[in-house]
Specification:
The complex is a heterotrimer. Chain A is built from 6 helices and no strands. By secondary structure, chain A is mostly helical. Helix content of chain B is about 60%, strand content about 0%. Chain B has 17 helices and 2 strands. In chain B, strands 1-2 form a two-stranded antiparallel ribbon. In chain B, β1 and β2 form a beta hairpin. In chain B, α2 runs antiparallel to α3, α9 runs parallel beside α11 and α9 crosses α14. The radius of gyration of chain B is 24 Å and the shape is globular. Chain C has 2 domains: about 80 residues, Helix Hairpins, CATH 1.10.287; about 120 residues, Sandwich (Immunoglobulin-like), CATH 2.60.40.420. Chain C contains 3 helices and 10 strands; from the N terminus they run ααββββββββββα. Chain C has a 5-stranded mixed sheet with strand order 3-2-1-5-8, with no helix packed on it. Chain C has a 5-stranded mixed sheet with strand order 4-10-9-6-7. In chain C, α1 runs antiparallel to α2. Chain C starts with 10 loop residues before the first helix and ends in a 17-residue tail after the last helix. The chains are: A mainly alpha, B mainly alpha, C alpha+beta. At the A-B interface, α1, α2 and α5 of A face α6, α7 and α8 of B.
Chain lengths: ~210, ~600, ~230
């Protein structure tokens, strides 16, 4: 019989009487994600404010940005959330093989998302859509580039960190570190990944579709 | 129930291998060591911030007076101090860096980095934080951030000089200040420090929610931990907004974006909104923990329960919540829509109320108490006296029409220093003295403590009270040479007086520094509970506690403020004591 | 010394009035609280055999000392609204206010007056550095701009302060109540020369102001057609 403190400590998933009935790592991840909400709100909120103040400096949907390609990219990311859920479900029932497979799938799809985004960035900047005032020649004005690259760039960075975490999980999975009783890392990475996906859906809607 | 819990495993030293010096004291995962690491780091930065203030005060005492060169001026490069004359570039940097370092590298880490880390697990009966490795990472992220911030003093162009508030466009384009690398280092350092703060916040919140010992219900948590918990929530939600703003400013500086450059569509006021949306919760981050410490010390020093514990908790929560709704009061004169200004005035007036409630509750705690004026108690009572002044001066600037006149004058400087120094720093001195025996197993010297206290209290008031008058007379902030204004030149005598009082004030702090360092080696050995307090760090753990804190997970039977309870002999009743406590011996440190 | 500069505008009455009201209220609270604190410190200090009175608080007293401060701050807030809107609201700028363009830059103030053609922004405008010339007893509206960073237009004796933000044009109006020379300062850190961004405000009688306009080659005389020297609140 382990102490309640120790049970909370490790990736163990025993809920407790004290607190929120949620083990430490999971509570910690939720708390962290709250801070991320504030971070993305500050960037997206600034975009909304700047665009309301200077609508003429921004372009119409599709004028500069490749909506279709990015819609496909959005679909990819959503698929990766599905694979992540499948990975989590697999380890919940002890299926090591499926855990590894779905984790790898999630990581690969995440990398594809990033690849498409990099490709998009290259395309856009070659057409004069850049983050800086200098060299900006696309529709709208440099403010458009400033906001676009900052928001999507930081989202992309979060995806990148998520991909690294996923590969770490893959390595650990191959080492047999995750069991039915002990797979907190998989669950919290899943939480993070879904969050990043959700942010993208919001970003895509606000930046590409409106 | 408590009976199902067994010994806490990590404390079973038998199979706990001995850690190397490096793993024990440098890269430690023990919350107590990490708290002490923050303590040394922040006291160092407090000194740096104080020296910057001394430089500013020298300039204000002798504005471009070649007959009174800056002592030690020769140590500075000619671009900063020329023939003993402080140059405007350096003065503006000193102003900026004094604010930055005091707020982010001294006061905040002293309140949170030190005491959230040190106290939270102990006060709730936990062996350590929820995430010890993350905790270690938090200090070792803050430390390099501090180094980067210091580096800014040594680069060409000098350090950031746009004020700690960094209003754009002054801060966004080096063209306006002549500061290039220094500004970037400032921004990078602040971004990194933000991560350190966030790591801490995640840890503190998770720990308080999830790792309380059996019987430690929410309304039995001591007020320092309550205050630190709420502060951690503020940090969690406010710092990311600052980070967003800092990133945007850094991008404007480096990659040519145009968030704040009006010529290309940017909005200077956007910076102010983002900065103050963070900045106002920030000032509550800077005061709430101190309020928690003061509650603890006054209750223990009065041998009485805190008056209105529930009200105190609710007041902390109210201050934290309403604190999100007042940020515009820093922007009344910015050109913001006056109707918006009005609504911010309303919320700002309202937030005075929970602070008032706390002041009255502290008085209520002292009322009919048995007051022991040991050094921590002196500081805690002084906190109340000084915070009242700071809070009341806030009412003036909360009124938008009065703020038209007082905004950006020395009246605001007086206000902020009454709350940050008279408030937070006094709370910090009291808290360090109070918890020093627990941290280091020794008492700080009581005589030196009292000398330091009185000198600080007297000279603090001599420095900052007259600043109310300077502000009322219309003296602006951040002015290198006020004698250039005919209506301000007559105040040279007063500025001289303030400066010399400030030099004595700063000098007096060395008494504290000496006491702190000397007592580490020569201080009287401290008993487990020198203040006869009730909370778990005193009643269930030795001074200092070992790794893992408690031999057995404590069980909590009552709140932390059952002093002088009629059902128990003696004047205190430990939280983890099942029945009436045995009679206590005469308190040793209680005069 | 160390007190409010002698007032020179119609705004001073309301601003100073609220200032003194707040001073009175906070002064009483300050003295009261500190006195009680000192009294308790002395009266309840530890003495041999003293025992503290064990109580956890009192709800009624909590209600009282919540309600009382709330009432006071709401009162101060409510009394502040009208003066604030009167001073700041674009709607309260008198239509007959005499307009002066004021552009702030590192590190000077440039005031522009309409030329004889009576229109602002034309070639015959007269621009002067670090000084503002205005008539007494007549509303003046300063159109504030900045060329570079944020500055703040501060006239202490007039109780006027308004940030000049690049990319924004802000109207700030006031009415002088006496003639003479007064101070103009920059109240927002704007760089290394922030300290020397001072200037003069010279207030003339109606006739003298017209004479000054003529001498400077600035706009049509305002004439004797002045608003009354006391502002309608």
């Amino acid at each position: 019989m382990t102490t309640h403190a120790a049970a909370l400590d490790r990736g163990g998933m025993d809920a407790t009487e004290v607190g929120m009935g949620v083990y430490n790592m999971k509570l910690g991840m939720w708390v962290f994600l709250l801070s991320e909400v504030m971070f993305f709100t500050s960037l997206i909120g600034s975009y909304i404010i700047l665009r309301s103040a200077h609508p003429d400096m921004f372009a119409q949907p599709g004028e500069v940005l490749a909506v279709n390609l990015t819609a496909f990219n959005t679909f990819l990311l959503i698929c990766s959330s599905v694979t992540m859920v499948l990975a989590f479900a697999a380890i919940e029932r002890g299926d090591q093989a499926k855990l590894k497979a779905w984790l790898i799938a999630t990581a690969l799809i995440g990398m594809s998302f990033l690849g498409v985004q990099v490709y998009e960035y290259i395309q856009l900047s070659s057409h004069g859509f850049v983050p800086s005032v200098e060299g900006y020649s696309a529709a709208g004005a440099p403010l458009y580039g400033s906001t676009f690259y900052t928001m999507t760039g930081f989202h992309g960075f979060h995806v990148f960190v998520g991909v690294l975490a996923l590969w770490y999980l893959v390595i650990q999975a191959f080492r047999g570190k995750y069991t039915v009783a002990n797979h907190g890392a998989v669950e919290i990475t899943g939480l993070y990944w879904h969050f990043v996906d959700l942010v993208w859906i919001i970003l895509f809607t606000i930046v590409y579709l409106i | 129930m408590a009976t199902t819990l067994t010994e806490h495993a990590p404390h079973a030293d038998a199979h706990h291998h001995e850690l190397s010096f490096v793993r024990k004291y440098i890269f430690s995962e023990d919350h107590k060591i990490i708290g002490i690491q923050f303590l040394f780091m922040s006291l160092f930065f407090l000194l740096v911030g104080g020296l910057l203030a001394a430089i500013m005060r020298w300039q204000l005492a002798y504005p471009t007076d070649a007959a009174n060169p800056l002592p030690g001026g020769g140590l500075f490069p000619e671009t900063m101090v020329n023939n003993g004359i402080i140059l405007p570039e350096f003065y503006n940097s000193a102003v900026t860096m004094h604010g930055t370092i005091m707020i982010f590298f001294a006061i905040m880490p002293l309140l949170v980095g030190v005491f959230a880390n040190y106290l939270i697990p102990l006060q709730i009966g936990a062996p350590d934080m929820a995430f010890p490795k993350l905790n270690m990472a938090s200090f070792w992220t803050a430390f390099p951030a501090g180094l980067i911030m210091l580096a800014g003093f040594f680069v060409e162009g000098g350090h950031s000089s746009a004020g700690w508030t960094q209003y754009a466009p002054l801060s966004a384009d080096p063209e306006w200040t002549g500061v290039y690398a220094g500004q970037r280092l400032w921004l990078i350092s602040m971004i990194i420090l933000g991560f350190a703060s966030l790591m801490g916040a995640v840890n503190y919140i998770t720990t308080v929610i999830n790792m309380r010992a059996p019987g430690m219900t929410w309304f039995r948590i001591p007020l320092p931990t309550w205050a630190l918990f709420i502060t951690a929530i503020l940090i969690l939600l406010a710092i990311p907004v600052l980070t967003g703003a800092l990133i945007m400013l850094l991008f404007d500086q480096t990659i040519g974006t145009t968030f704040f450059a009006s010529a290309t569509g940017g909005e200077p006021l956007l910076w102010q909104h983002m900065f103050w949306f963070f900045g106002h919760p920030e000032v509550y981050i800077l005061i709430l923990p101190g309020m928690g410490f003061v509650s603890e010390i006054i209750a223990a020093g009065s041998r009485k329960p805190i008056f209105g514990y529930a009200a105190m908790v609710l007041a902390i929560i109210a201050i934290a919540f309403i604190g999100w709704l007042v940020w515009g009061h820093h922007m009344f004169q910015s050109g913001m829509n006056p109707m918006l200004g009005m609504s911010f005035m309303v919320t700002t007036m309202i937030i005075a109320v929970p602070s008032a409630i706390k002041v009255f509750n502290w008085l209520g705690t002292m009322w009919r108490g048995d007051l022991h004026f040991h050094t921590p108690m002196l500081h805690a009572v002084a906190f109340v006296a000084m915070f009242v002044i700071g809070g009341l001066s806030g009412v003036f600037v909360a009124s938008t029409p009065v703020d038209i006149f007082l905004h950006d004058t020395y009246f605001v400087v007086a206000h902020i220093h009454y709350v940050l120094f008279g408030g937070s720093l006094f709370a910090i001195f009291g808290a360090i003295t109070f918890w020093y025996p627990k941290m280091f197993g020794r008492m700080m010297n009581s005589t030196l403590g009292k000398i330091h206290f009185w000198l600080t209290l007297i000279f603090f008031n001599l420095v900052f009270f007259p600043m109310h008058n300077l502000g009322i007379a219309g003296m602006m902030r951040r002015i290198y040479d006020f004698t250039q204004y005919e209506y301000l030149a007559p105040f040279q005598g007063l500025q001289l007086f303030i400066s010399w009082s400030a030099f004595v004030l700063i000098g007096a702090q060395f008494i504290f520094a000496f006491n702190f360092l000397y007592s580490l080696f020569r201080g009287e050995k401290a008993p487990q509970n020198p203040w006869h307090a009730n909370s778990l760090e005193w009643t269930a753990a030795p001074s200092p506690p070992p790794h893992g804190n408690f031999a057995h997970t404590p069980t909590v039977y009552r709140g932390p403020y059952e002093y002088s309870h009629p059902d128990t002999p003696g004047d205190y009743w430990p939280q983890n004591e099942p029945g009436p406590a045995a009679p206590a011996p005469e308190p040793v440190y209680a005069e | 010394m160390g007190w409010l500069p002698e007032a020179a505008s119609t705004f001073a009455d309301s601003i100073d009035g609220i200032f003194y009201l707040i001073l009175a209220i906070t002064g009483v609270i300050f003295v009261g609280v500190e006195a009680v604190l000192l009294w308790f410190a002395v009266k309840y200090r530890h003495r041999e055999g003293r025992k503290a009175y064990h109580t956890h608080g009192n709800i009624r007293v909590e209600v009282v000392w919540t309600a009382l401060p709330a009432v006071l701050v709401v009162l101060i807030g409510v009394l502040s609204i009208r003066p604030w809107l009167h001073i700041r609201s674009p709607d309260s700028i008198p239509p007959e206010a005499y307009a002066v363009d004021m552009t702030a830059k590192q590190f000077e103030w440039n005031a522009s007056y309409v030329g004889p053609d009576g229109a602002m922004g034309t070639d015959d405008d007269v621009t002067q550095r670090n000084q503002l010339h205005i008539p007494v007893g007549r509303p003046v509206v300063v159109m504030l701009r900045s060329e570079d960073v944020i500055h703040s237009f501060f006239l202490p004796e007039f109780r006027v302060k308004q940030d000049a933000v690049p990319g924004m044009e802000t109207a700030v109006w006031f009415q002088a109540t006496r003639t003479g020379e007064f101070n103009l300062a920059c109240a927002e850190l704007c760089g290394t020369g922030h300290t020397r961004m001072g200037g003069r405000v010279i207030v003339y009688s109606a006739d003298d102001f017209d004479a000054w306009l003529l001498a400077e080659g600035a706009g049509p005389p305002l004439g004797a057609r002045l608003a009354s020297s006391t502002d309608q609140p």
